[in-house]
Amino acid sequence: MPLVPLQADVLGPDFRVETISLPPDPEGPVVATLVTLTPDSPNGRAVLHVHGFADYFFHTEYARWWADRGYTFYALDLRKYGRSLRDHQTPHYVADLGEYFAEIDLAWWRITQRDGHSGVIASGHSTGGLTVPLWVRERRPPELTAMVLNSPWFDMQGAAWLRSPATRLAIERLGTSRPMQEIPRRVSDVYGRSLHREHGGEWDYDLTWKPLESRPVYVGWLRAVRRGHALLHAGLDIDDPTLVLSSAKSFFGEQTDETASTHDIVLDVEQIRHWASSVGRHVTSIAIEGAIHDVVLSRPPVRARAYDVLDTWLEAWVEKPAASPAAPSN
User: Which InterPro entries would you find in this protein's record (predicted)?
Assistant: First the structure.
């Protein structure tokens, strides 16, 4: 496997980082960022992870869990997120989720062609959990062996009228005529505070890259997401084994530290489970009691159960030993 001179990442010297240049968009130059953790004993396989909305990769425990099993772990900060966000850009904005396919393509090339991995698991969280299977549907990469989707955003949460044909038409029209119009919304910082070490949580991350109160949502971006939802709902017909992890319960009432630490307060887990089978023919959907929206950031006993589930699924469907030859008949 070729050695690539990468720089140390902000997560520490074990994590290496490289910038991927992309064609400019109307706002100017565009880049994505690929972070890599190489295991002590590589098994020739890899994981590519894509983050969610108003997020970036800082999940060192998740990366090390894979590396401990011999997987080279790669994480992609998409354009206009985290390490890839530039001063001239509107954070996270794209008009089509397909715009992300360019950086996923280039990351995939580095993983499979440059670095020589023949089997790759694609991993995605929240909006990344929608983008990744859409990319797989479009590209059908032969090196893909499985997908892990952590609380994927499979539908519009909230009141039923938000999913009505009239609302969808309004988003489509407004997203075309006034794509940069911000959608008014009230976002609590309880979820962010429940995560960040300085506010009572367990995790240390850059609050300029992952703000406590999320980021603005624009109509053009929401139109892109709803188009992605429509493709998913029509069925993606992906054959590769897929694990969908979610919390057991959502909570959308008055949020407290306790509800934020034991429920998904971002997405509706019933919607996740409802649409999971639309991904393909081999989907395992598991609800983890006490998990939060980002399942692998849950409290230690909860995420330990999540990793047990992931380990069991991995051994059963991805790393299962080859079948023994049938005994000759007499």
Answer: AB_hydrolase_fold (IPR029058), Hydrolase_4 (IPR022742), MAG_DAG_Lipase (IPR051044)
Of 254 and 60, more confident: 60
Torsion of CA 68, 72, 77, 78, to 10 degrees: -130
The bridge status of strand 28-37 relative to strand 242-247 is unpaired
Q: What is the pTM of this model?
A: 0.93
Cα–Cα distance measured from residue 160 to residue 199, given in angstroms and rounded to the nearest whole number: 34
Instruction: In whole angstroms, give the CA distance from residue 176 to residue 155.
Output: 21
What would be the CATH architecture of the domain defined by 7-318? 3-Layer(aba) Sandwich (3.40)
DSSP state of 325: P
Task: Take residue 266 and report the two structure tokens written for it.
Answer: 């971002």
Helices and strands (H, E) in the chain, number of each type: 9, 9
What is the per-residue pLDDT across 197-238, written as a single tens digit (0 to 9) for each? 998 899 999 999 999 888 999 999 999 999 999 999 999 999
Q: Return the closest-CA partner of residue 121 out of 81, 78, 74, 64.
A: 74
Q: Give Cβ neighbours of residue 296 (< 8 Å, ≥ 6 apart).
A: 59, 61, 62, 150, 303, 306, 307
CB-count exposure of residue 83 (10 Å: 0-12, 13-18, 19+): buried
Sheet holding 283-288, edge to edge: 7-9, 12-25, 28-37, 72-77, 45-50, 119-125, 144-150, 242-247, 283-288
Supply the DSSP symbol for 199. G
Our measurement of the distance from residue 141's CA atom to the centroid of its chain's CA atoms, rounded to an integer in Å, reads 18
Q: 328 exposed, middle or buried (CB, 10 Å; 0-12, 13-18, 19+)?
A: exposed
For residues 114 and 40, the answer to whether their CB atoms sit within 8 Å is no
Return all residues near 31 (Cβ < 8 A) that are at least 6 apart.
19, 20, 21, 22, 79, 84, 86
Number of Cα atoms under 13 Å in the Cβ half of residue 21:
2
Would you kindly state where each structural domain of the chain is located, as residue ranges? 7-318
Please give the distance of CA 144 from its chain centroid, rounded to a whole number.
Answer: 16
